UniProtKB/TrEMBL annotation:
Pfam families per record: GNAT_like, Hydrolase_6, Hydrolase_like
Species, as recorded: Micromonospora kangleipakensis
SUPFAM superfamilies for the chain: HAD-like
Descriptive protein name: HAD superfamily hydrolase (TIGR01450 family)/HAD superfamily hydrolase (TIGR01549 family)
InterPro entries hit by this protein: GNAT-like, HAD-like_sf, HAD-SF_hydro_IA, HAD-SF_hydro_IIA, HAD_sf
Length: 339
């Protein structure tokens, strides 16, 4: 059910941690409403942080990018998987140790900043391999990493996101590049640093001190699962990768606390619902059919989604939904589901 009038979701939290791609921006353009949402949080005195699996930019570069979009941000508010990977390697390797880097210059810069030496060849006998997303990563880079791992170097992946969002649709992410090495080596990375591992969110919560933390993300498999592992509440916004069919089929570890169409859900009680809701909530009723779920009744589409999640998660049904009334058909269309 949607919140009661006057009960803003954000009022229950002292820190809001945002994912970036698909939540605040797509590539280098702000998502509609994102600038205004962050501005309202600052005006309300809420602490804000940003946690991103994208390892192609340094924290200072991300802060500069955000500020240029109209979202004032400091480097210490930005947590990247590149920086977290470098800090982890610093703690495990001797100073000056060579690290074979596969990825963007930002990852090399983070490795260098913690006192380690980025290299590109397996012949340099690297003490570890650090793999992150980079648009210029090619076969030669992956081949050198494969040779180094086979020679005994531990393999660190900044993240395993299968895709990253763009205005043209999902594009291959670092997880797709990791899959190349996984296929060649016949094994998994030794360490995955970014989401859904809880380190980025836990670090943000520690930096903010006491109080409740809300994680806002667009991906069930990284943002929402990472928040769950960190023991934090989460809000899924439907402006990026994960959609309603994926939400209905989500396993328990990937189920958000709340869902909203966009960041307006932080402030408007009618624009957000708590999940899973109840099967007959908000004027809607949901039943299990042979082909999936049947939605009947009338009411706000988000209330319909909460009711659908309640039944789908309890019955472990597929995401197929059939409309039993014209109003249900309209609600399903609003949620991106075929009636």
């Amino acid at each position: 059910m949607t919140a009661d009038a006057g009960e803003r979701l954000v009022d229950g939290y002292t820190l809001v941690v945002f994912d970036l791609d698909g939540v605040i921006y797509l590539i280098d353009q702000p998502i509609p409403g994102a600038v205004e949402a962050v501005g309202r949080l600052h005006a309300d005195g809420k602490a804000v942080a940003y946690a991103t699996n994208n390892a192609s930019r340094r924290s200072s570069e991300v802060a500069y990018l955000l500020t240029g979009m109209g979202v004032p941000a400091r480097a210490d508010e930005v947590l990247t998987s590149a920086a977290a990977t470098a800090e982890l390697l610093r703690d495990r390797l001797p100073a000056g140790a060579p690290v074979l880097v596969v990825g963007a210059e930002a990852l090399r810069a983070e490795i260098r900043a913690v006192g380690l030496r980025p290299v590109s060849l397996a012949d340099d006998e690297p003490a570890a391999v650090a793999q992150g997303y980079g648009p210029q990563v090619g076969w030669v880079d992956l081949a050198e990493a494969s040779l180094a791992v086979r020679a005994g170097a531990p393999w660190y992946a900044t993240n395993t996101d299968r895709t990253l969002p763009s205005e043209r649709g999902p594009l291959p992410g670092n997880g797709s590049l990791v899959a190349v090495l996984r296929t060649a080596l016949g094994r998994e990375p030794d360490v995955v640093v970014g989401k859904p591992e809880p380190a980025l969110f836990a670090t943000a919560a520690r930096r903010a001190g006491g109080g409740q933390t809300l994680v806002v993300g667009d991906r069930l498999d990284t943002d929402i699962e990472g928040a769950s592992r960190a023991g934090l509440d989460s809000l899924l916004v439907l402006t990026g990768v994960s959609d309603v069919p994926e939400l209905l089929a989500a396993p328990e570890t990937r189920r958000p606390t709340y869902v909203a169409m966009d960041l307006a859900g932080l402030f408007d009680p009618a624009a957000v619902v708590r999940l899973p809701g109840v099967p007959d909530g908000g004027g809607w009723s949901v039943t299990v059919t042979d082909g999936g779920l049947a939605l009947d009744g009338a009411g706000p589409p988000l209330d319909a989604l909460a009711a659908l999640c309640a039944v789908a998660w309890a019955a472990s049904t597929g995401p197929a939904v059939r409309a039993e009334s014209p109003e249900a058909g309209k609600a399903l269309a609003a949620l991106g589901l075929s009636a």
